[in-house]
Each structure stands twice: as C-alpha cells, then as structure tokens.
Amino acid sequence: MQIYLKKYFDTVHEIIRSQPGCQQLQAWQEIHQPNIFFTYSIWNEEQDLNNYRDSAFFLQFWKTVKPWFDAKAEVWTFDKIV
Known about the structure:
two-stranded antiparallel sheet, alpha+beta
C-alpha cells in the first residue's frame, strides 16, 4: 500500500496544488508506523476546500486511494490562531 500511495500521490499532487484556493499541500508519513499517511493543506477559504472535495477530480482521487486504507480516514479542519 505504501508504495502505491506514494507513487500515486506523486502523480496527482500538482493537480491538487493547482486547485483554486489551495495555498499549500504537503504529504507526511509517520516515522514509526510507515503505513500512516497525512496530507496537510492550506486553503484560502473553507469554501475553496469544499469546492475541491465536490470536484470530479477529487471523486476519482478518493475512489482510487480509499481501498488502500487500513482504517477509516479522518479529516480535520482548523482555524489558524497563531
């Protein structure tokens, strides 16, 4: 799973970064549990993120990566305070 996810993300990260409102996108892998991955993104507005989540690209992206997950995906949305 790890190798597939890394290779696939390498092919799509620029597409995600080019979405309207996306300021930053990073992918992280847990050092001690290498089967755990996170993406970290910064969006201009929550609506920009929601527009991305509703896009045809995201639906295809999610359809591709979801079967590779060992557990239910978690999503958090934060406001920056500092």
